[in-house]
Amino acid sequence: MALTPIQQDITIKQLDAWGSLTGIGGEILDGSDVQAYGKMTHGAPTDAISAGYFGTSQGKYRLVYPFNEQATLLQGEVRITDESTGQSKLYRAGDTWFVTKGTSTLWEVLSDGYTKHYLSFN
Asked: Rg of the Cα trace of the chain?
């Protein structure tokens, strides 16, 4: 067993570059080249249960969740809209959310980028 402290001040510059968001299933909506960044704290993204840091550069995109996720925003500012309900919420550092597998979301990254820590499971 291990205890892993979550770094509250981590930025995307400290994460590994994962390439274009389209490479992990995102649909970019504003013509920008949104880049994804991450670093695992438990497991791998394809495992039944995983956790890690994730972030993207500024832009607007659609993401249909391939897993259930609880996340806390560590840096930046994002507006997330649940496409099934139209509910939209602005998140800032310290805010937490939960989203269920299969939910289609619209993301608008209002800052230069953001970083979150997440726990995902199938």
From this structure: 13
Residues 6 or more apart whose Cβ sits within 8 Å of residue 122: 48, 49, 67, 68, 101
Half-sphere exposure of 121 (CA within 13 A, CB side): 4
Nearest to 122 by CA among 71, 68, 53: 68
Sign of the C-alpha dihedral computed for residues 3, 9, 11 and 14 taken in this order: negative
| pLDDT band with cut points at 50, 70 and 90 for residue 1 | low
Are residues 9 and 93 in contact, defined by beta-carbon separation less than 8 angstroms? no
Model pLDDT, residue 92: 98
